[in-house]
Amino acid sequence: MLVGGDLGFLSSLVVAVFMAVFGPVSGFMVRRKWRRSVARRDEIKRLLVLASEEVARVELQAAEEYGYDYGYKV
Question: Smallest Cα–Cα separation from 60: which of 51, 50, 49, 71?
Answer without folding.
Answer: 71
